Amino acid sequence: MVDGVAAVWVPVSDMRRAVGFYRDVLGLDVTETDADWSEVDANGLKLGLNAREQVQQGSGGGAVVSFQPDSSIDDEVQRLTRAGVSFTGGISDHEWGRIAPFRDSEGNDLQLYTPPQG
After folding, report:
1. What pLDDT, in 10s, does the model give residues 30-74?
2. How many other CB atoms are there within 10 angstroms of residue 105's CB atom?
3. Across the beta sheet with 97-103, what order do the strands follow?
4. DSSP 8-class letter at 89
5. How far apart are CA 31 and CA 115, in angstroms?
6. What residues contact 49, with CB distance under 8 A and at least 6 apart?
7. Could you tell me the pTM of the whole model?
8. Domain of 6?
9. Total structural domains within the chain
10. d(CA 56, CA 34)
11. Which CA distances in Å does 47 have to 4, 6, 38?
12. Which one, out of 6, 11, 57, 64, has a CA that is 20 to 30 A from the CA of 111?
């Protein structure tokens, strides 16, 4: 089963401008920042500002909701697949964790996420 939201990713084309907006305009704490990824604490919910190589207005995209499974990511992919969910890619491993992307019933981008082990 899904055990809450791990993070919400928001695509941005200008990281400095986006960090300024979330920090200065909205008054949220920016807890991490670099050219490709910044994190904002939205009262306990992590907003990830995710730089895109090219962002064109009206080209799709949008926030990505990352769900943290309460079991292994592999088990949750199998469970969701049995429930009829189509994954848009396999499980991928990164230094910052593992993800498995899929879409909701409306075509919105979602993913399972687990932090790095160890």
Report:
1. 999 999 999 999 989 999 999 875 545 445 567 788 888 988 999
2. 7
3. 29-33, 37-42, 45-51, 2-12, 64-69, 109-114, 97-103, 92-94
4. S
5. 17
6. 9, 10, 12, 15, 18, 19, 22, 37, 38, 39, 40
7. 0.68
8. 2-114
9. 1
10. 21
11. 14, 9, 8
12. 57
